[in-house]
Amino acid sequence: MRRTTGRIVLAVVFAGLALNGFVEVISAVLGRSHEPAALVALQALVALVGAAAAWGTWAGTRWAPAAALLYGLMAAVLVVSLTPILGLPPEASRGLWVGAAACVLFGVWAAWYLRRSLRRTAV
């Protein structure tokens, strides 16, 4: 199966997002940051789903769109969870909801693009 430029770029984006999450988790495990355990656990889950989305996108697997959508949803959950986990004031949550919506939209768009791209290159 031929990799399109768009799929290559999307795989690199997912890999970068996953790497960022893993760096945060490793930093917390090594004691270099003092993030709450719940936040570190969510970051680990988002990083794992991002890595799966990167691999699925790169390899052109049939489950890549689902992984992309799951990444968007998990990232949104992480963003919305920041208010209770970090004890942020209620006025901060408005901006976080916008960020969460952006994560979901990215996941939906990536899933749509991958589904379309994988159908075209499978022929």
Briefly say what this structure is.
The protein is mainly alpha-helical. 85% of the residues lie in helices and 0% in strands.
Describe the protein:
The protein is mainly alpha-helical and 123 residues long. The chain has one domain (5-122). It is built from 4 helices and no strands. Helix 1 (5-29) runs antiparallel to helix 2 (37-59), helix 2 runs antiparallel to helix 3 and helix 3 (64-86) packs antiparallel against helix 4. The protein is globular, with a radius of gyration of 16 Å. The model has no long low-confidence stretch (mean pLDDT 94).
Structural key phrases:
mainly alpha, 123 residues, 4 helices, globular
Present the secondary structure layout.
Elements: H1 5-29, H2 37-59, H3 64-86, H4 90-122
Helix pairs in contact: 1-2, 2-3, 3-4
List the secondary-structure elements in sequence, H or E: HHHH
Q: Please describe the biggest sheet, giving its number of strands, its sense, and whether it closes into a barrel.
A: none
Strand content: under 5%
Task: Give the proportion of residues in helices.
Answer: over 70%
What's the pLDDT, averaged over the residues?
94
Q: State the secondary-structure class.
A: mainly alpha
State the low-pLDDT regions, or none: none
